[in-house]
Every structure is written in C-alpha cells, then in structure tokens.
Amino acid sequence: MSTTLTPSLMFIGKASEAIDRYTSIFDDAELVRITRYDASNPEMEGQIMQAELRLQNQSLLLTDSPDMHSFTFTPSVSFFVRCESVEEVDRIFAALSEDGTVMMPLDAYPFNARFGWCNDRFGVSWQVGLN
C-alpha cells in the first residue's frame, strides 16, 4: 500500500448530517465506508467513529469526537472546488453557503471569473470557482 494524504474532519455530533449534506450537493459523492460507535460507548452510540467520503475524486475522513474541544474548523484551511460551468459554481456555492457564512460573495474577481468563499453550516470552509 502506498502512502496517502487524506483530509480528516472532526465534528461534534454532526458528522452524519455533514455526510448527508455533502452527498446531496456533489453529484459524484460516494460514502465509501462508515463505522459507528456501538453500545459499548453509550454516550456516543450511533455517532460516527470514522467514515470515508469521496467527493470529486477526493477522499475525506469524517468523525464525531467524543470530547468537546476549544477548537473547531478555521477558514485558513479550505476545500477549493473547481467547477466546469458558472451554473455549477452557483449551485454548489448556494448549497454550501446555506445556513453558513459567506466570506466572499459570488462574483468576478481578478483571479477568477466566478468565485465565492464560505463557511458551511458546520464551519467547514469552501472556495468555489470556475476551473
């Protein structure tokens, strides 16, 4: 097996909701595998121990943390989605920014003819632009 690099996203009880949301947004989304906490960990039972999700040929690991932390997601690290059409940019950006925070609204910028940057409802940062 070769060495790989896979982004890992840690949620506090929202990993299943994030998987449902992301698979509804990206046409090629695939839930590759999922492991849930069982009754041996009653406070976490049903939450995601680890899941692998594939979006746009990129694997992501998602997990629910059993502990509260003083940190969460930050926009200084984001996913950049390169789209083939303005319509795709608009659709994906609208879905990701729904109930989130828009940091750069959809517009033409010197570096991209159609681009937007947002944090989604989970706090994960997304940049969406034309390819």
TrEMBL record:
InterPro entries: 3_dmu_93_MTrfase, Glyas_Bleomycin-R_OHBP_Dase, PhnB-like. SUPFAM superfamilies: Glyoxalase/Bleomycin resistance protein/Dihydroxybiphenyl dioxygenase. Transmembrane segments: none annotated. Residues 5-128 form the PhnB-like domain. Signal peptide: none annotated. Pfam families: 3-dmu-9_3-mt (PF06983). PANTHER family: PHNB-LIKE DOMAIN-CONTAINING PROTEIN (PTHR33990:SF4), PROTEIN YJDN-RELATED (PTHR33990). This is VOC family protein. It comes from Lujinxingia sediminis. The lineage of its organism: Bacteria, Deltaproteobacteria, Bradymonadales, Lujinxingiaceae, Lujinxingia.
